[in-house]
Amino acid sequence: MIFLWAFIIGGLICVIGQIMFDVFKMTPAHTLTTLVVLGAILDGLGLYEPLISFAGAGATVPITSFGNSLVHGAMEEMQQHGIIGVLTGIFEVTSAGISAAIVFGVIAALIFKPKGN
């Protein structure tokens, strides 16, 4: 039964991404960022861990799990090291290169305006 729920939950996350592409005409970058932030918000509200317990790989394989990992690591490190743990936590739990790419990508998105096609 766990395989069925993993398939359904993982498929629903992918359907949400596909709807963002088709209906809302979002770019892949916007869709990716939205799903990561959604995973982070769900973890911040304490809803992503029960989803992982229920759906297994259906919740850990999609990109929403990356947002969950970032927030989860930041919160754990904050408990131990205070406010500086928020920054170190995202680098400890996830790969430093991927975390740096996200941080610098957000900074670049805030500073620069994209060109239209």
UniProtKB/TrEMBL annotation:
The keyword Amino-acid biosynthesis does not apply. Keywords: Membrane, Transmembrane, Transmembrane helix. The keyword tRNA-binding does not apply. The chain crosses the membrane at residues 6-24, 31-48, 54-71, 83-112. InterPro entries: Spore_V_AE, SpoVA. PANTHER family: STAGE V SPORULATION PROTEIN AC-RELATED, STAGE V SPORULATION PROTEIN AEB. This is Stage V sporulation protein AE. It comes from Aciduricibacillus chroicocephali. The gene is spoVAE.
